[in-house]
Amino acid sequence: MSARGEFSSRIGFVLAAAGSAVGLGNIWGFPTQVASNGGAAFVLVYILLAFVLAYPVLMAELIIGRATRSNMVDALGKISNSNLGRATGVWGFVTVSMILAFYAIVAGWMISYFFESFTQIIGLEDASQWLTGSSTARSLLFCGLFIALTASIVVGGVSDGIERWSVRLMPTLILIILLLIGYVATLDGAMDGWKAYIVPDFSAILNADLLISAMGQAFFSMSLGVGTMLVYGSYVSKNENLPALGASVALVDIGVAILAGMLIIPAMYVALNNGVQIFSESGQLIAGDSLIFTVLPALFNTMGMVGYFVAFAFFALMVIAALTSSISMLEVPVAYVVESKGLARKKAVWLLGAIIFVMSSTIILNFEDLFGLVISITTEYSQPLLGLALSIFVGWVWKRDQILAEIKQGNEQAEHSFFWKIWPWYLKFVCPVIILFMFIRSLNILDF
pLDDT of 59-101, one tens digit each? Predict the structure, then answer.
C-alpha cells in the first residue's frame, strides 16, 4: 500500500480545502441569489447559516478524516464498526464521481469559452463560432481536456500535486476577481449593481423560501457530504487545531463567494446599461449557465476590443474555480482505490479519470435525458442525505471520548473550549433536524 500523503503547511491545507469549496456555484449561483433576495440581508443570513449548519458538518468530516487517516469508505467503516458505514462511504464516492461527471462537462464549456476569447483577439472567426457552438464534438473534447487537467494534478499526490497547485491557483483566482471588480466598477451601470448587492432589504429575509435557499447555499457551497473534506482532513497533521482550521476554510469560502457577488452583480447591471437582457420573464435575475454563457458574453461583446481581454480573464477565473473543486472530487475515489485495492496512485488516477470521462460522455450523448437528472439526483437528493448520515455517525455512533481525544491532538485545552461545549450536542440534535427539514422542504412535501 502506498504511503499516505500529508499537507505540508496550514496555508496549503486551507487553500486546498477552500478551493474545493469554491466552485462554479459560488460564482454563478450565490451572487444572483443575493441580488434577488434582499441584497446584504441575504448575505448576513448566508454567513449565519454557514456557521450554524455548514461549519459543524465540515468539522465532522475533518475530525473523521484525521482520526482514521483513511478514505471515506474505510473511515466510516472504522468509526461505526459496521458494513453500514462502509456502504455509506461507497455511496459517497459514487455520488462524488457522478457530480464530477457533470461538472467536467460544464468546466469543459468554460475552457472552450476561454479559448474563444483568445481566437477573437487574433481574429479567427470560424474557430470562435465552433468554440461557442453546442456541438457534441466540442463538449466531448473539452470535457476530456478538463478531466485530463484534473488528473495530471491529482497524480502528484497531496503535497506535490493538490497542495502545490492549490497554493498557486487560489491566489490567482482571488487576484483575477479583484482586478475584474476594479475594472467593472468603472463602467456605466455598475453603481446600480452595487446597490442591488449591498443595500439590505430586511423584509425579504422573512420569506421561508429565502431561508431554505440560504441554507442550501451554505451547505452545498462547502462541498459537504461527499467525502472531499473527510479525505482532505485525513491528510492534516495531528498538530493542527482542527476547529480553527475549519473556521479558516469556512471564512475563505464565504469571502470568495462575497467577492464573486461584487463582480457578477455590477457586471450584470453594466450589461443592462449596454442593452443586454438580465431579467427573466418572471422578473428574476438570470442565473446559472444562461448568465455565464449568454448574458456575460453579450456584455463582453459590447465592450469592443477590451471585452476580449475581460472575457479571457473571466473564463480563466471560471476554469480555475472549477479545477480547484474537481481535484478534491477526484481524490475521493482515488484515495479509496489506492488504499483499499492497492493500486498505484498513477494507475488509479488515470483509470478513474477514464471511467469518469465515460460517464461524462454518456451524459453528453444523452444530454436532454441525463444532464438535469444526474444534477438533481446528486445535489438535491444524495448530497443532503449523505450530510445527514455523517451527522448521525459522528453525533450518535462514534464514541464521544474518541472524538475529544482526536481534537485534543492539536489543542490540549479543547475540552474546555467553547467549540467542545457546543458542537457535540449541536451536531447530534440540531444539524440532523435542519438538514432533514431542508431536504423535505426541497421536495415540496411541506407546503409552508
Answer: 999 999 999 999 999 999 999 999 999 999 999 999 999 999 9
Dihedral sign from CA coordinates of 293, 295, 296, 301:
positive
Structure confidence by residue, pLDDT tens digits, 2-49? 457 899 999 999 999 989 988 887 787 788 788 777 788 888 888 888
* Integer Cα distance of 104 and 345 in angstroms: 21
What are the cell numbers at 182? 476594479
Q: What angle do CA 7, 92, 444 make, to 5 degrees?
A: 125
Q: What is the Cα gyration radius of the chain?
A: 21
Percent helix, percent strand, percent coil in the chain, to nearest 5:
80, 0, 20
Give the integer Cα–Cα distance in Å for 47 and 29: 15
Contact 57, 388 (CB under 8 A): no
Q: What span, in angstroms and rounded, lies between the C-alpha atoms of 214 and 167?
A: 29
Q: How far is CA 374 from CA 92, 94, 173, 435, 436, in A?
A: 15, 12, 28, 21, 21
| Ordered domains of the chain (ranges, CATH) | 10-442 (1.20.1740.10)
Whether the CB-CB separation of 147 and 353 falls below 8 Å is answered with yes
Beta-bridge partners for 279: 285
Give the dihedral of Cα atoms 60, 64, 70, 71; nearest 10 deg. Answer: -30
C-alpha closest to that of 19 among 235, 259, 248, 252: 252
Q: How far is CA 160 from CA 71, 163, 237, 238, 437, in A?
A: 19, 6, 16, 20, 41
Asked whether 180 and 263 are in contact (CB, 8 A), the reply is: yes
From CA 36, how far away is CA 266, in angstroms rounded?
13
CA-wise closest residue to 442 among 201, 204, 214, 203: 214
Helices 72-80, 55-68: axis angle to 10 degrees equals 90
Rounded to whole angstroms, the Cα distance separating 73 from 259 reads 35
Residue 58's identity, in one-letter code, is L
Q: How many CB atoms lie within 10 A of CB 244?
A: 13
Q: 23's torsion region: left (phi>0), alpha (psi -120 to 50) or beta?
A: beta
Q: Are 62 and 219 in contact (CB under 8 A)?
A: no
